[in-house]
Specification:
single chain, 153 residues, mainly alpha, 7% strand, elongated
């Protein structure tokens, strides 16, 4: 076999691998959208757009961990849950989604995001140190945040 033919075959293999990776990413995204839709209690006939799925997943993650986190950490947790994050730089895309949804997210410091309901005038401590955010998770964190908003705690 000539070197030219071998080179052509190698180029085809590289192109096909790249295309397979792209298709695998799309498949992961579609499966995540379907899993999210099946898990919803409502019976709408439309599937959530990709961005809404990702944003809803970020809210759920923040409620579970109970504190702000770095954009890269959020991206890693989204990947673990099978949520596809598109773009040339998916980590920046995660930050961009949060910056566009100010009703649900706030930027506590460069590269650090949390739920808007956690926003305080006090500086937020880095992950791993005590922060003004309630340490309870899930529903308990929501209740504590609501009580704090009403000035009860």
């Amino acid at each position: 076999m000539s070197k030219a033919i071998i080179k052509e075959i190698q180029d085809d293999v590289a192109r096909l691998r790249s295309e397979r990776d792209r298709i695998d990413s799309l498949l992961e995204h579609y499966l995540a959208v379907l899993a999210d839709k099946i898990g919803q209690e409502d019976s709408e006939d439309t599937v959530s757009p990709q961005g809404k799925v990702m944003d809803d997943a970020m809210v759920a993650i923040y409620e579970e961990v109970g504190h702000p986190m770095r954009t890269k950490e959020m991206y890693d947790l989204l990947k673990k849950r099978g949520i596809f994050v598109p773009g040339a730089d998916p980590i920046k895309n995660v930050g961009a989604h949060q910056s566009l949804d100010k009703e649900r997210f706030y930027n506590s410091e460069p590269g650090m995001w949390g739920l808007a309901k956690w926003k305080t005038d006090k500086p937020v401590s880095p992950v791993g140190t005590p922060s003004p955010v309630p340490s309870a998770s899930g529903k308990a964190a929501n209740i504590l945040a609501q009580l704090k908003d009403k000035g009860i705690t």
